[in-house]
Write a structure and sequence with these properties.
The chain is 69% helix and 0% strand. By secondary structure, the protein is mainly alpha-helical.
């Protein structure tokens, strides 16, 4: 099996980077609490642009002058928690927040304070997805006649689509992943709450997720050979994710489903 970039990350580092994503998510949400919904749309949008500019390795002084300082000057005291969380310390490849996390976990490995390219890509993808989802649902809370909301919603077109930026993260693959998780842990027999949770976590269309969860191994009738091959590739991809987690029962279940195509 050919492993993708994410699967090549050593397990201990993979878990550490995901822990860093969770820490960022908590800090980000806490930093938004002082702002109104309309203000959160603006501030989170700015943070997404800042994250992108860090990824493009732009000069920090330029980023501060063009994107960070205007937020601080405009909202002043409301930025106290935003400043305390120091979200920009997450965005560099030599993340100070990763250093803090490793120090707190008593991981003494100075050479690993700098994220490798694949680790950095994994972290930034998770961080931007967190901000994008938060911004999206905040816009939905705003009154429909709010001109500020309309203006900022239109500006989303100019911001990187972090939910779907990885073309490998398809709706069916995410539905399959949740299907097999549910198979082992039995969260719910009703697929509607599963679809709602998947929509909340991924931003994929809830109705499409629900359809896939109802019949996760369905192959389109128009071209069964192509449909079976596409499903087989999706199962192999999802199997790789469960290999990362070491969930043997789910892997065995997927292998049984794969054998049905032989």
């Amino acid at each position: 099996m050919i492993l993708d970039e994410e699967e090549k990350i050593p397990r201990d580092r993979y878990m550490l980077i995901n822990e860093l994503i969770v820490k960022f998510s908590n800090d980000f949400k806490r930093s938004m609490e002082a702002f109104s919904d309309a203000e959160q749309v603006e501030v989170s949008g700015s943070l997404m642009k800042i994250a992108k500019r860090f990824q493009e390795k732009e000069n920090y002084d330029d980023i501060y002058e063009k994107d960070i300082e205007p937020i601080l000057l405009k909202y002043k005291s409301k930025c106290r928690e935003l400043a305390n969380c120091n979200l920009t310390d997450y965005f560099g490849q030599g993340s100070l927040k990763l250093f803090d996390l490793m120090h707190n976990k008593k991981i003494d490995d100075p050479a690993r304070h700098l994220m490798e390219d694949k680790e950095y890509k994994l972290f930034m993808s998770g961080a931007k997805r967190c901000m994008s989802n938060h911004r999206y649902f905040t816009i939905l809370r705003l009154p429909p006649d709010d001109q500020f909301a309309l203006k900022n919603a239109n500006e989303l077109d100019g911001i990187e689509d972090t939910i779907s930026e990885n073309t490998e993260f398809t709706t069916r693959r995410r539905a399959l992943f949740l299907h097999y998780l549910n198979y082992q842990f039995k969260f719910s027999q009703d697929k509607k709450p599963l679809a709602e949770i998947a929509h909340f976590l991924t931003g994929n269309n809830q109705d499409n997720l629900y359809k896939h969860l109802l019949n996760p191994l369905k192959v389109k009738n128009e071209d069964s050979k192509k449909g079976e091959e596409a499903l087989r590739k999706d199962l192999i991809y999802v199997r790789g994710k469960f290999e990362r987690l070491g969930l043997k029962k789910i892997i065995e279940s997927i292998d049984m489903d794969l054998q049905s195509f032989d």
